[in-house]
Specification:
Layout: H1 15-24, E1 28-32, H2 39-48, E2 55-59, E3 68-71, H3 77-83, H4 92-99, H5 102-109, E4 116-117, E5 126-129, E6 151-153, E7 157-161, E8 168-171, E9 175-178, E10 183-185, H6 193-205, E11 208-213, H7 218-224, H8 234-242, E12 247-250, E13 257-259, E14 264-270, E15 275-278, E16 293-305, E17 310-312, H9 324-341, E18 347-352, E19 361-366, H10 373-383, E20 393-398, H11 406-416, H12 419-422, E21 423-430, E22 445-453, H13 471-485
Parallel strand pairs: 1-2, 3-17, 4-12, 19-20, 20-22
Antiparallel strand pairs: 2-3, 5-16, 6-9, 7-8, 7-11, 9-10, 10-16, 11-14, 12-13, 14-16, 15-16, 18-19, 21-22
């Protein structure tokens, strides 16, 4: 599937280099002959729900003599560990442990890795301008039956800049093909850094420059979908992860960078009065995002692509979906780090559950040290930078509960809480128009619950003991009777 002999010649953040690695440890599957209209998305969805979901590389797509689509790029501990350059042999728990502390270090050293402009990139093999620009020359899927169109931007990397400082931002936003392939809407999330940059450009210059990569190493997907601190370029942050500057092509029309390892890329402009009807789209909450609404449409001035290019597809939907595992792992480590930085004592673990899209349901395990400790941790978690967006539930549990085990968390809620006393409601937090509970046209606030599912502080010693065998004894029994149990 991947020509290993050419991988050494690939630029940094090449998707083909990533695929060669994934193929080498047996987690890449070839899918030939699927149709771009729903079938490709349905195959990907079935894969996400499999016991061992694989990365799928679709080729020979119906109606397209060339062009490929990748799904499931970060859906396992091995693939995500490789993406984050943390090793290829992790489990869920070891990956979170390996990631802890890294985001702050990467942020601190990002400025040491400014992007490296180059005029030599495989991306430049094919350039289109004017009426030769057509995004539908590529096998762009219609992922879900209720989608309002074909979405080329699910795993994309959208680059904007701060007009005052020039600092680049890279975000992952959904992009629907418009105008028969000549344009695409950019659904930049309000409040995110990319949307702030766009609005600042509008206020100062009446238009905003933008570049987009549609196929690249999933590291850019991971960074574009998480909260890198404002003022830090995601491309420089990626350089810190890699330990080397990211090579980029500078767009001749906008001056903005495009990763040299990109498969398909475009540059152009956004204007406040240039909008198109967009949506609905099956989103990461597991629901369609609502009625069609106007979004900014990118005026594409140039389009580049490699021969037989690969589109990075990351279709969301009801969890588990394409990037729910990635977000769960990254958010779990980032929230843990922020709690430690806030001075929280007795912290045992954090898990941003995949069933909540890595945002909506967060469990935190603590060893209670003083009266009010559990509530303090719950309130802090609900407002951390890494957790505040679209969070709906924070559950604090004792240190005997594994926060990643949803059965254990629900058991703690069921047996260690009094709903009248142990659930607190925080109102009008940072929400999103993607929230299925948000009435049409209402401001995007979200209310959230902090659930204290720890044993009551004053009853810690007298609370009924847990009815389970000693773990050491269970290990002895398994050694003797394992043949019966396995």
């Amino acid at each position: 599937m991947v020509d290993a002999s050419t991988v050494a010649e690939e630029p940094l953040l090449s998707l083909r280099g990533f695929l060669a690695a994934v193929e080498s440890f047996g987690e890449l599957r070839a899918v030939r002959g699927a149709h771009w209209d729903l079938e490709l998305g349905a195959i990907a969805e079935l894969s996400y729900r499999a016991p061992r979901p694989r990365a799928l590389l679709f080729s020979d797509i119906a109606g397209y003599p060339s062009g490929r689509v990748l799904t499931g790029s970060t859906g396992s501990a091995r693939r995500l560990g490789h993406t984050l350059r943390l090793g290829d042999a992790h489990t869920d728990a070891s990956l979170v442990a390996a990631l802890r502390g890294k985001p702050s270090r990467w942020a601190a050293t990002a400025s040491d890795f400014p992007v490296r402009p180059t005029g030599d990139a495989p991306l430049l093999a094919n350039e289109r301008t004017g009426n030769k620009i057509n995004l539908l020359d590529f096998p762009v899927p219609r992922w879900h039956a209720g989608d309002g169109g074909r979405y080329i931007g699910t795993g994309c990397f959208v680059v904007t800049s701060d007009p005052d400082t020039g600092v680049h931002n890279g975000g992952c936003y959904r992009m629907q093909v418009q105008d028969d392939g000549r344009a695409a809407t950019v659904a930049a999330v309000p409040g995110k850094h990319g949307a702030q940059n766009i609005q600042a450009w509008f206020a100062r210059h009446g238009r905003a420059p933008v570049t987009v990569s549609f196929g690249h190493d999933p590291l850019l997907l991971a960074l574009g979908g998480t909260e890198v601190p404002r003022g830090i370029s995601e491309l420089e942050y990626a350089g810190a992860v890699l330990g080397a500057p990211v090579p980029v092509v500078l767009g001749p029309d906008t001056g903005l960078p495009i990763p040299a390892g990109s498969e398909i890329a475009a540059e152009g402009w956004l204007r406040p009065d240039a909008t198109r009807e967009e949506g609905p789209f099956g989103e990461w909450t597991g629901y369609y995002s609502g009625a069609r609404r106007p979004d900014l449409a990118m005026e594409i001035t140039r389009l580049w692509h490699r021969d037989d290019p690969i589109l990075l597809g990351t279709p969301p939907g009801r969890p588990p979906h394409d990037y729910s595992y990635m977000r769960t792992v990254m958010k779990s480590a980032m929230i843990h780090d922020e709690l430690i930085a806030a001075g929280v004592a007795g912290l045992r673990g954090v898990w941003a559950h995949e069933a909540g899209g890595g945002r909506l349901f967060i469990a935190v395990s603590v060893q209670q040290r003083y009266a009010g400790h559990a509530r303090q941790v719950g309130h802090l978690t609900a407002h951390l930078s890494a957790a505040a967006y679209m969070n709906r539930y924070v559950v604090v549990v004792d240190d005997d509960i594994d926060p990643a085990d949803l059965d254990q968390v629900v058991w703690a809620i069921s047996t260690r809480t009094d709903p009248a006393a142990d659930i607190e409601i925080l109102r009008r937090g940072w929400g999103s128009r993607l929230d299925p509970m948000l009435p049409e046209g209402a401001p995007p606030f979200v209310n959230r619950a902090v659930v204290d599912a720890c044993r009551p502080w004053e009853r810690r010693e007298s609370f009924p003991p847990v009815a389970q065998s000693d773990p050491g004894y269970l290990r002895q029994v398994r050694e003797r009777w394992g043949g019966v149990l396995d």
